Amino acid sequence: MSQHLSDEEKRTITEEPIITSTQILHLLFQVKHALQQKYECSLASAGLPKPVTGPRLRVLMEIAADGDMRMNELAKKLGIKARTVTQFIDALEKDELILRIPDPLDRRAIILQLTERAKPLIQKAKEVNFTIAEQLIEPLSPQQRAQFVDILQTLQSCKKSSGDKCSE
């Protein structure tokens, strides 16, 4: 098959470095970490208190968007384990941003509710969130953004279709 390639095509094939899936995965982790640090720093610069980190803010914003909800519903929406949600809720409750209220329909269940203290923080976060996101993604052209979203959605759909028990 290689005898059908031109000399230029052969050079191109041999000159391009081979990037392994492990290298791609490590780069993805490094970029995620760097973006998360920049995001956290930008939130702090915007005047949001330290307890309102990116992951905690995501929890608060989900509850704000959907209204009061059970912890298991929140875990499903966030795509994380229930025990992880419990850790976030424990911290947010300690910071007086979340209330746990017994579910009147099921006394075994707990409803999560935002406190009055949380509402202005969420509003401020919404105001700065768009600006932060634009600053972080600004280096990408519209075409690169579309390609990036396509790649991420492909990776996400592979995770869902693989039957990965670790993600449940």
TrEMBL record:
InterPro entries: HTH_MarR-typ, WH-like_DNA-bd_sf, WH_DNA-bd_sf. This is MarR family transcriptional regulator. It comes from Aminipila butyrica. Keywords: DNA-binding, Transcription, Transcription regulation. Residues 21-157 form the HTH marR-type domain. It holds the Pfam family MarR. Transmembrane segments: none annotated. SMART domains: HTH_MARR. It comes from the Bacteria. One of its GO terms (molecular function) is DNA-binding transcription factor activity.
